[in-house]
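Final report, closing paragraph on structural work. Over the funding period we assembled a curated collection of sequence-structure pairs, and we close with a single example.
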Amino acid sequence: MAIKVVRAAADRLLRSEVTGKPVLSSFEAVIDYCRLSMGFEEREQLRVLFLDRKNNLLTDEVQQKGTVDHAPVYPREVARRSIELNATAVILVHNHPSGDPTPSRADIAMTKEIVAAAKAVGVTVHDHIVIARDSHASLRALGLM
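Its predicted structure, as stored:
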């Protein structure tokens, strides 16, 4: 029980570090927040950080939860939700429960599909980050998007 309380408190603290502030100016705060909120999950999940035109976090939503090595993704739903929230940009984040943040071919292909769907409705995909317990990978930094 005490561990849950500590985790909830840490989650609130890290959320306050990214909420209402320019997300892209604090990439490490985003990584820390995502690692705490999903890095230790036993199933894959895709989260989307929806941003306004100043790159302030509008909301962070779990779009899908999957299995130990796959989470279904629907580019149309990411685009639709972006429009509903008046988001102008998003950061995609998903976890790899295996501990290896290396993007798979499916991760890369899915990212390209979401980028195309988002672009069609005027939304920019800033990055797709893969989170593992002790590390992360940025598809943008790896030149994969």
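The chain is about 40% helix and 25% strand. Strands lie at 45-51, 57-65, 89-95, 124-131, 136-138. We thank the funder for supporting this effort.
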